[in-house]
Specification:
Elements lengths: L2 E5 L2 E4 L4 E8 L8 E6 L6 E6 L6 E3 L7 E6 L4 E6 L8 E7 L11 E2 L3 E6 L1
Parallel strand pairs: 2-11
Antiparallel strand pairs: 1-3, 3-8, 4-5, 4-9, 5-6, 7-8, 9-10, 9-11
Length: 121
């Protein structure tokens, strides 16, 4: 099992930027895919960005493609989400997720506690 802890959320104006970080502990971080999900009030949790264990294969949902960048530093056991050109519709609780596979297939097996991102118009 892996423990995940997010940081970096907050309040930002539309058009601004935030960088989320997720520190992992408890298992071999470099062996598994990671991802960022989000959940807005009244909505289901949705995937935002996924990354394979090496950092070479990435997926983005259409609404964030070109604005968000996922990356990882396996030496620091940390995954990042750089969010630029933020929009009010990006407002949500953002969750870090860990997979038990080298590519992000199936459902995550570990979750962080979430960090709030609020984008004001």
């Amino acid at each position: 099992q892996v423990q995940l802890e997010e940081s970096g959320g907050g309040l930002v104006q539309a058009g601004g930027s935030l960088r989320l970080s997720c520190a992992a502990s408890g298992r071999t971080f470099s062996s598994y895919a990671m991802g960022w999900f989000r959940q807005a009030p009244g909505n289901e949790r949705e995937s935002v960005a996924l990354i394979d264990r090496s950092g070479s294969v990435k997926y983005y949902r259409d609404s964030v493609n070109g604005r968000f960048t996922i990356s990882r530093d396996n030496t620091k056991k940390t995954v990042y989400l750089q969010m630029n050109s933020l929009k009010p519709e990006d407002t949500a609780v953002y969750y870090c997720a860990g997979y038990s596979t080298s590519y992000a297939s199936g459902r995550p097996t570990s979750w962080g506690q979430g960090t709030q991102v609020t984008v004001s118009s």
